[in-house]
Amino acid sequence: MDDTLEDLFAVIEDRKETLPDGSYTASLFAHEKGENAVLEKLGEETTELVLAAKDDDHDEIAYEAADIVYHLLVLLSMKDMTLEDLSEELDARK
Ligand SMILES: N=c1c2ncn([C@@H]3O[C@H](COP(=O)(O)OP(=O)(O)OP(=O)(O)O)[C@@H](O)[C@H]3O)c2ncn1[C@@H]1O[C@H](COP(=O)(O)O)[C@@H](O)[C@H]1O
């Protein structure tokens, strides 16, 4: 799981740097309202996750949770934060 998150975060950082055509991630960094789009997605997907959990729909829970994690990592990158910032906070709670 750690590798999956690290690999995904590395792709997100690369998209931020290179802004390739056709990349959804790059479009979030390139557009003036990209941050709003990410925040809106996080809100929508959280609601969808809650509904999936109420339905006990495990496939949908995994799908919505993955959407949230991806957009959360994009948000961290937008704020020039890293996965280490998240790890440090989680570790501090142990
Ligand atoms: N994990 C993701 C990822 N999750 C979601 N999305 C995009 O986020 C957008 C919104 O996702 P949603 O699930 O909300 O889309 P939706 O169809 O409206 O779904 P619902 O609202 O109904 O849940 C869609 O365009 C998705 O393609 C993602 N886009 C990219 N990634 C990762 O980022 C990598 C780089 O992608 P590009 O930047 O597009 O090259 C990919 O290889 C993936 O690993």
Précis, in short:
By secondary structure, the chain is mostly helical.
Write structural notes for this entry.
The mean pLDDT is 96. The radius of gyration is 14 Å and the shape is globular. It has 94 residues and is mainly α. It has a single domain (2-92), classed as Orthogonal Bundle (Helix Hairpins), CATH 1.10.287. Helices cover 81% and strands 0% of the residues. Phosphoribosyl ATP is lined by residues 8, 11, 15, 23-26, 41, 44, 48, 67, 70. The site of phosphoribosyl ATP has 12 residues, from helix 1, helix 2, helix 3 and helix 4.
Q: How far apart lie the N and C ends?
A: 19 Å
- The shape is globular
The residue fraction in helices comes out at over 70%
In CATH, the homologous superfamily goes by the name: MazG-like
Write down the CATH class.
Answer: Mainly Alpha
Strand fraction band? under 5%
| Uncertain residue segments | none
Bound molecules: phosphoribosyl ATP
Query: Based on the structure given, which CATH architecture is correct?
Result: Orthogonal Bundle
Give the SSE order as H and E letters: HHHHH
Sheet having the most strands: none
Beta-strand segment tally: 0
